[in-house]
Amino acid sequence: MPIPNAPPEVVAVGASAGGVEALKCFAAGLPPGLPYAVLVVLHMPINAPSVLARILDRSGPLPATDAVHGEPLAPGTIRVAVPNRHLLVDGDRTVLSEGPTENGQRPAINALFRSVASACGHRAIGVLLSGVLDDGTSGLAAIRSRHGTTIAQLPDEALFPAMPRNAIDAGVIDHQTSAGKMGQLLMELAERDSSQAAAEPVADVHHAGIGDKLLQSHDGEIESALRVAVGALQEKAVLARRLADQAGPGMARDRYQAIVDEAERAGDVLSERLSAGCTERRERDE
């Protein structure tokens, strides 16, 4: 039985190099009655045409289409990010954004994961498939900080295992399985959540004391997510700077340096917001 005003249940999927094959296996294993809306980001060149939605639509039982700005989230459907737009979630609808690139990517995996963590809380599920570097790790950390669930493709199965392996090594993964078996795992998670919801009494969140505690809890979760994001950006800047130094003069070095500059700017902005939020909370507590 649906819970009134509950956040949507979303499976956010991120893939990069080698991701098309992994996504085809993932889509093929999804059951027709999947109770989640599925959102997919595949890192792609900004100006490249995308036929991924058509590929996934043919690969499994769930209908797959390109994401549309403002479209309501619907269980049992797959919506695919389009080139040159971040795919995000606002409330119970999809958002296509021209926000800054992340690691030179738009759409970006971490942008989707962070957005779903914020909009869906504990009802968010993040899935990380084949790819390079550490994309997706900080976004999955944000999902876990809101008590969501994270899943990684088995590195030994992935064509490019770095992305799932880095997330596993960072300790932000709850489950590991093959891409083709993720549908079965998702149904098990749905059944578990349904059983827990039926067993838990409905709380009166309008009670002033409970409401204050809920607000304080969310403040702490947001602060935790910001700290994770700042740390991830700092690590990204260090890695990119090292790669720039190794690359020597040329286009590769310029690209890595651009990533350093972008990560440091984003880290500074988040650090300022984190500091301001902590100050406001201390003043409110006093």
Describe the structure.
The protein is of the alpha/beta class. The protein folds into two domains: 10-199, Methylesterase CheB, C-terminal domain (Rossmann fold, 3-Layer(aba) Sandwich), CATH 3.40.50; 208-285. The protein is built from eight helices and nine strands. Strands 3-4-2-1-7-8-9 form a seven-stranded parallel beta sheet, sandwiched between helices. Strands 5-6 form a two-stranded antiparallel ribbon. A hairpin with a 2-residue loop joins strand 5 (86-90) and strand 6. It is globular, with a radius of gyration of 19 Å. The N and C termini lie far apart (41 Å).
The proportion of residues forming helix, as a percent range, comes to 40-55%
List the secondary-structure elements in sequence, H or E: EHEHEEEEHEHEHEHHH
CATH top level of the largest domain? Alpha Beta
Q: What are the segments in which pLDDT stays under 50 over at least 5 consecutive residues?
A: 202-211
The rounded distance between the terminal residues' Cα atoms is: 41 Å
- The 3D shape can be described as globular
Taken as a percent bin, the fraction of beta residues is 5-15%
Give me the CATH architecture of the largest domain, please. Answer: 3-Layer(aba) Sandwich
What kind of sheet is the major sheet?
7 strands, parallel
What number of domains?
A: 2
Number of H/I helices: 8
Keywords: Chemotaxis, Hydrolase
Pfam family, one: CheB_methylest
GO molecular function: phosphorelay response regulator activity; protein-glutamate methylesterase activity
Organism: Mycobacterium cookii
